[in-house]
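Hey team,

Sharing the Hemopexin run so nobody has to redo it. Sequence (430 residues) first:
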Amino acid sequence: QHLMQYITLQCDIIQLYFKGKDGHAEHPKQSDDSHYNASPDRCAGIEFDAIAPDEKGTSYFFKGDHLWVGFSGPAELSNGTFKDLDEYHHLGHVDAAFRMHNKKDSGDHDHIYLFLNDKVFSYYKHSLEKGFPLEIQQQFPGVPSHLDAAVECPAGECVTDAVLFFKGKDVYHFDIATKMVKKKAWDHLPNCTSAFRWLEHYYCFHGHHFTRFHPVTGEVGENYPKDARHYFMRCSGLGDGKKEPCSAVHLDAITADDTGKRYAFRGEMYSHRDGTHPFPITKSWRDVTDGVDAVFSYDSKIYLIKGNQVYIYKADAHYTLIDGYPKPLKDELGVQGPVDAAFMCEGEPTVFLIQGQKMFSVDLNATPRSVKREVSLPFTKVDAAECGADGVRVFVGSKYYKYESPTILSHSKVTPVPFKISPKEFVCTE
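Structure output:
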């Protein structure tokens, strides 16, 4: 009896501790910095809560109240990138996320949707859209709450523009135009805690592994699952034995498309500059079967040059060769091929073509297109070149040279001090 009285007294003390002044239960106040104390390490082998790219193609990997930007770098707090998260429900995590593909509605296209319990949040350029959060059923009728994963599926890969929602073994195909839902059971697929569309392929993440699947049938690819740390992140000591030294790296071409996605080409392979795994060029540009000499992007198109020919692909959900191509490079740009490199600077209609020690500038707004200027360069041979926010980079072997602008490059008589290709940018080891 004394023991029972003692237990009752202790319970009363605990209840009083957790009650506020109004008599309602409340949790003890935690330090505002408490969520900084457990920054996760994805290379330790964790299970992501969600994965989604933004409107520029930068990938975000979510875990708890942290996220990773891209395929390398440390974790950071989610509310640092996605403002307002703490103002609504004090989000400690997200259940699922995807980037909307809906070009028929410019007010919805490329928005990131984040899901938590029965709520959905819509972000564009990392700002919460007015009117959100909403109930999931208001925005996506027929889609359940407490989701496990979600991924966009553009028309051509799915029958129509759609979103795939995962909950347990059930998959909900949501048609964006009609808002109709078809529910399927994919018992053969692991339970996906996140899903990701990457280079027109679809991946179900489970634990620290991933499995590729077909977005319509759910069919699983061969030789899966695979360790995500070897493909979707850069982890020291994992997979380094498969990488060549940076001193042996040389590029054939490099470019960035209109969304900011950057591609590096070598031989018959290419890699996304945000990733660590090379793919055959024919996977995205199926008609280009023997590598490339130069590549550049302009007006939602990508130009791939090989020998005397140029292939022009329209950039959409996937790349489509424009009718009538390939064409002779001379007819398209006024330069007889082959060329060694090509680049453009953002906001300018001029493409620069490098051939041996010569650089030609061509105005893409002109009709017909022809060389408007020719200059000599202080290089005997260039492998690749690109122009970005920090100027022009000219790649020669495993090194590159930096110039503030094409004008500075065109007036240069000697080469500046070179920089070494780094594993921070390319798949190699120091």
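Residues 1-37 have pLDDT under 50 and may be disordered.

Ping me if you want the raw files.
A.
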